């Protein structure tokens, strides 16, 4: 599954999400991806719950098409502070 497909799945299945998806440096495997996801849906959620929301957005693709996902999640305010 390519990075653009994963980005589209996240953005279409998670409330007001903006996602950046790529292959991690030094990894030449289509099944290993890195994603940064910003969504107001993460407000008040623990880091584990935020990651679960992303996994839910990816559905069966997380177990069938994606072997590993390096994930960073932020609320819009948290992401603005990082910039």
UniProtKB/TrEMBL annotation:
Transmembrane segments: none annotated. It holds the Pfam family BolA. InterPro entries: BolA (IPR002634), BolA-like_sf (IPR036065), BolA/IbaG_stress_morph_reg (IPR050961). Coiled coil: none annotated. Belongs to the BolA/IbaG family. This is BolA family transcriptional regulator. It comes from Halorussus limi.
């Amino acid at each position: 599954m390519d990075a653009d497909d994963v980005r589209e799945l996240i953005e279409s299945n998670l409330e007001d999400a903006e996602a950046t998806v790529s292959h991690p440096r030094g990894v030449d495997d289509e099944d290993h991806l890195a994603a940064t996801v910003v969504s107001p849906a993460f407000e008040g959620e623990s880091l584990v719950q935020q990651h679960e929301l992303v996994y839910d957005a990816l559905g069966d693709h997380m177990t069938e098409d994606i072997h590993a996902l390096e994930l960073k999640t932020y609320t819009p305010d948290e992401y603005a502070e990082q910039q």
